Amino acid sequence: MDIFVCIKQVPGTTEVEVDEKTGVLKRDGIDSKMNPYDLYAVETAIKIKEEKKGEVTVLSMGPPQAAEIIGEAYMMGADRGALFTDMKFAGADVLATAYTLSQGIKKLGNPDLIICGKMTTDGDTAQVGPEIAEFLDIPHVANVKKILEIKEDSIVLEMDMPHTIEIVDVKLPCLITVEKGIYQPRLPSFKRKIATKDREIPFYSLKDLDDHDEMKYGLDGSPTQVKRIFPPEANTDQEIWKGSGEELSERLVDKLGELKFL
After folding, report:
1. Nearest CA among 152, 135, 144, 136 for reference residue 116
2. Domains of the chain by range and CATH?
3. Residue-wise pLDDT tens digits, 144-156
4. Is the distance from CB of 111 to CB of 58 less than 8 angstroms?
5. pTM of the model as a whole
6. pLDDT per residue as tens digits for the range 57-72
């Protein structure tokens, strides 16, 4: 089975500056890591490969330093990878990101299964995976918490809906987004680190894709724009009250009224 996994490098800290003009996170010079949800996607792909044989390909869109997480995926057991990096991809919203990744998938081949993490910790939209599937015109299932069976031409999945657990049998090729806990991600192996340290991570740019229309990528291809983004204000004010239970309860009621909670 040929499995593709879409992964993303995200900030490893909450102390991230924002470009006030574009609303885009300033990622240069900050600690980064693989998106936590994507670790579960990589582990899911490797588990399937171990059961059904085949190959796992990881792909990402981002700046050149995002190649680090592809190397991490190699250390987990992925077979090959690719990074789609170009300044013309910068500032993409979920739609432009999904379109770029869909073009990247077409560039790399025709997988039987595409796996994405449920969402990214720097966006929290959970939209990119399903949008990739729409661009590729393949079925997709979100919020997958368990893989029940892999058949010759379909896969049986358990999906976590808001109020129910549903079981679906979806035709291959398809795309799924997985929940945390579907499998426990394995730690990168030092043995595999040594074995894969020279493994190629090819870089691709806009000119390598089939569609060269710059208006479909990056900020130009993003129909949604961030109007304003800012870090939350920290409020560390505190008061210490002393008194009897009756006095403190009355004071608490007065305080809640003052704050307009009552």
Report:
1. 144
2. 2-221 (3.40.50.620)
3. 999 999 999 999 9
4. no
5. 0.82
6. 999 999 999 999 999 9
